[in-house]
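1st attempt posting a full record on here, be nice pls
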Amino acid sequence: MKNLFFIALIAAFIAGCAGKTTSTENAAEVTTTAVANKTVTVAIEGMTCSGCENTVKESVTKIAGVTEIKASHLDSTAVVSFDSTKTSVAAIGEAVTEAGYVFKGEKTPMAPAQAN
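the predicted structure (as C-alpha cells):
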C-alpha cells in the first residue's frame, strides 16, 4: 500500500513539472510576439474635424494587425500601434488614402533641443 502511495506521489510530481515546462514555452512565445509590436506617428493631410479623425480610425482599424490608433485633426497626425509581422506603414498609408486623405508618411521624432 505504501508503494502505491509513493508511485502516485511521484506521478503527481512529474505531471506538475511537465506543466511548468509548457508554461515557460508559452512565456517565450508571448515575449517574441511583443517584440513585433510597433508604434509610429504618421502625417495625414485633409483631416479638418473629429468626423475626419473617426473616418481615418475606422479605415486603419480594419487592417489586420492594427491594435490601436489615435488620430488628431489639430496636429494632422495619427499614432498607430500594430504588429509589424502582420502589416506595415505602407498598408496604413493605403488605408488612409482610400479613406480620402493624403498620407504624408511616417514622422521622424525630433531630437531634443540642446542648451547653449
